[in-house]
Model the fold of this input.
Amino acid sequence: MAPIPGSGLAKGLAVTLRTMTKKTVTEQYPDVQPDLPPRSRGVIGLFEENCTVCMLCARECPDWCIYIDSHKETVPAATPGGRERSRNVLDRFAIDFSLCMYCGICIEVCPFDALFWSPEFEYAETDIRDLTHERDKLREWMWTVPAPPALDPGAEEPKELAAARKTADKLAAAQAEPRQAEPGEGDA
Done:
């Protein structure tokens, strides 16, 4: 049996009318900001004070999108008769977000916690060359990084803290013992 001409159109219009009366689920993004998870990944923020210019992040980046320039400065001796030291000073730290694939390897390999995930995700540019963000912009994003989640109160204390606390308690007990053994001194 052949379908009735126009029945497909009628079915389509019926579906359209049914969905027009329901509440929409789509949020209009620029007008309504999304509720992001607490530790969502947006862009990478730089905590410049922790950066020692070790270049690990740039070397480990699979996309080669991190650019670091530095120079050496001589630091005078800390004590008289000591020797001068040299240290690297950060001149440029930039990330090209047009190349970055947001893998987070740079954040993981940084031994000094200088790189963090920021939840900022609105950094679109009209020109692709403007997606290379210098350290000033990366520093601004650092202040949007949320604090780490609180420790679970029922969790075990880390081994390192337990060992340090045990050592501190022993030292405190050793310093308290000689004071208790000296009460006969006042009898003379």
About this structure: Helices lie at 7-21, 56-60, 105-109, 135-142, 159-180. The chain is about 30% helix and 15% strand.
